[in-house]
Amino acid sequence: MNCRTVLALVSQRHDLSAFKPMIEDADPGLDVVVWPDPRCHDAEIIAGWEVPPGLYARMPRLRLVHSIAAGVDNVIAGQALHAIPVCRVVDPLLAEGMLQYVLWAVLYFHRRFDEALRSGARHAWTRPVQTPAARCRVGLMGLGEMASRVATILPSLGYTVNGWVRTPREFQGVNVFSGEAGLLPFLRATDVLVCLLPLTEATRGILSHTTLDALPRGAALVHCGRGEHLVERDLIEAIARGPLRGAVIDVFEQEPLHTDSPLWSTPGVLITPHMATMARPETVVAQVVENAARLRRGEALVRRVDLELGY
Question: Which residues are identified as catalytic?
C-alpha cells in the first residue's frame, strides 16, 4: 500500500516533468505525478504554473496549492479555493535578475539606444542626444520585493526615482506617491515607466490608455510585471499617436506571444520572451518540499499568500 503523499506537478502550457525526480530525491515521502496523469486528481498538494481552470473542484483531497514562481495569479484564477492555503516561491536571486533586466531597459531608453538602432537600420550615422541620469525620471509602479532592489540601486547611479504604491510608505532615495490620488502626479513625473506590480483585480489592465496618455510626451514603458497588466491595443495606439516613444515588454497575457500579434511589428516595441528573472529549480524544489513537510506535520506554512492582497 502506498502511504506517500501525492504531489501533482500541474501546468497546461509547460512541461514540469523535470521537477519530478528532483522532488522525489529531496523527499522520498512524496509520490510525484505529472499532469495530465489522472492520478493528479487524487493529489493532496499541487505545485504548478498556469493550472487548468476549475481543476481544484475535481480534487477532493487537495490541501495545498504551491506556485513554482513568485506570482500566484495563474494558480488561483478560475479555481474554487475555499480554505486551501496558497504558497509561493521566494528566491533571493530573483531580485538580482530583475535588477539587471530593469537597469538594461532603463539604459536602453535613457542612453537612446533605441534611436541608435533605428538609425543603424537605415545605415545612418546619427548620434542621439545624451543627457545625465539625473534628468531621466524613472517611475516604479510597485515597491515590493523585487522593485525594492531596483529602487535601492537606481538612485545610486544618479537616476531620479519615483515610486507608486497602494498605501503610503517611505523609501530612502525615492519620491513615493500613493493611492489613486497619487497616480496622475506620479505618471506626469515619469520618463521611463517600469511596471513591477503584483496582479490583483485592482491592477489588472492598469497599463491602459488612461495611464499611458498621462505620461509626458516621449516617455517609454518597461513592462516586467504580469501580462494581464497591459492592454496591448492601448499600447499600440499610444505609440502610433506619439505620446509614447517605445516599450520593452517581457510579459504577455498569452504566452508564448502569438506569431500574428501586431506587437511584433509595432515600431519602438522590443519584445523579450519572459526572461527578466526566474526562480532557480533547486530553490523551487527546496521550498515546495519544505512546505510539503510542514503540511504533513501540521506546522505553519511559509511564504503563504494573502489571497485578499494577491501576494
Answer: 226, 274
